[in-house]
Design a protein that fits this description.
53% of the residues lie in helices and 11% in strands. The chain has 314 residues and is an alpha/beta fold. The chain is elongated, with a radius of gyration of 21 Å.
């Protein structure tokens, strides 16, 4: 499936956000027995949106919009969902920024960070595949030397995708591998160098030291590197994903996000909450295990799916 196969991607989005859409429907049900809006109903709508993981700012925006435009007028669930979709789209639109490969000189160095178990290594492979589809030359660096499994997994993905990889032994020096990657990438004309990093957040001091060393090494080769520091978030963890943004932003200088594991069990509202609270670019979302299941997203399409506009209209 090409990343331009929109019908198939749309169907996966419907499945990926199903839990959020259903939860919003459950929380809104029963609020429209009265013919007109009043303060009590507006309070309940606001609470329903917060309970659906959409965040307090989005809930307040929807409430204010309904109060300004429709207070004391007829209202139904479909009307509220339409407003929800529009406000979510307004929240997501500034954050929906695909990763641009525009560094000069090449390669553009992309550090990928995230806790173990977030889907970081698989996301790196999917990101590499996405960039290859856009005709970029990509190289991987297996910089999570803390785990032999991560090194082995990334080597398998590199072979499957057909991209070169720089790797070493478990316990090796990640900064040295990054140095080798930049030197080799420069020699062969690599556009994007994607670097896996250790995800042992329980040892913040050690992780900070390692990331700082990588930055120092990169600075000797290219003062602009790393060009991107991308944090991978697991959408099934809800509020915990937002907490990780806080920690990694302060610790590693996060420049953008990838939201992964948006499957039928995910708390997809966290995508909106992340956009409203932190304003970081959300480069892509992942909705499955397949190679092509990571893409930049259309904020209008995603907002309509989350709000359940299409389902209500049928």
């Amino acid at each position: 499936m090409s990343y331009l196969d929109q019908p198939a991607w749309h169907e996966k989005l419907l499945g990926g956000f199903k839990r959020t859409t259903d939860k919003l429907g459950e929380n809104l049900s029963g609020l429209f027995d009265k013919a007109r809006l009043d303060t009590s109903t507006l309070d309940e709508i606001e609470e329903a949106l917060i309970a659906s993981d959409l965040g307090p700012k989005t809930a307040m925006r929807v409430r204010d919009r309904l109060e300004d435009e429709r207070y004391d007028k007829d209202i139904d669930e479909a009307g509220v969902r339409a407003v929800v979709a529009e406000e979510i789209a307004a929240m997501l639109a500034p954050a929906a920024k695909p990763l641009e490969i525009d560094a000069f000189p090449r390669p553009q160095v992309i550090l990928v960070i995230g806790v173990n178990g977030s889907g970081k290594t698989t996301t790196i492979a999917k990101l590499a595949h996405l960039l290859k589809e856009q005709d970029y030359e990509v190289m991987l660096v297996a910089g999570d030397t803390f785990r032999a499994a991560a090194i082995g997994q990334l080597k398998v993905w590199a072979e499957r995708i057909g991209v070169p990889i720089i790797s070493g032994k478990e316990g090796g020096d990640a900064a040295s591998l990054v140095w080798e990657g930049v030197k080799r990438g420069t020699e062969i004309g690599t556009d994007a160098l994607i670097v896996d990093t250790a995800g042992r957040l329980q040892n913040k001091a050690g992780l900070m030291d390692e990331l700082a060393k990588i930055r120092r090494v990169l600075g000797r080769l290219n003062p602009a590197a790393p060009h991107d520091v991308v944090l991978v978030l697991d959408a099934t963890t809800g509020q915990n994903a937002l907490n990780q943004i806080e920690v990694f932003r302060d610790m590693a200088g996060v420049t953008g996000l990838v939201m992964t594991k948006l499957d039928g069990t995910a708390r997809g509202g966290v995508l909106v909450a992340a956009a409203e609270r932190y304003g970081l670019p959300i480069h892509a979302i992942g909705v499955g295990e397949g190679m092509t299941d990571l893409r930049p997203f259309d904020p209008h399409e995603v907002s309509r799916i989350i709000a359940g506009v299409e389902r209500v209209a049928k």
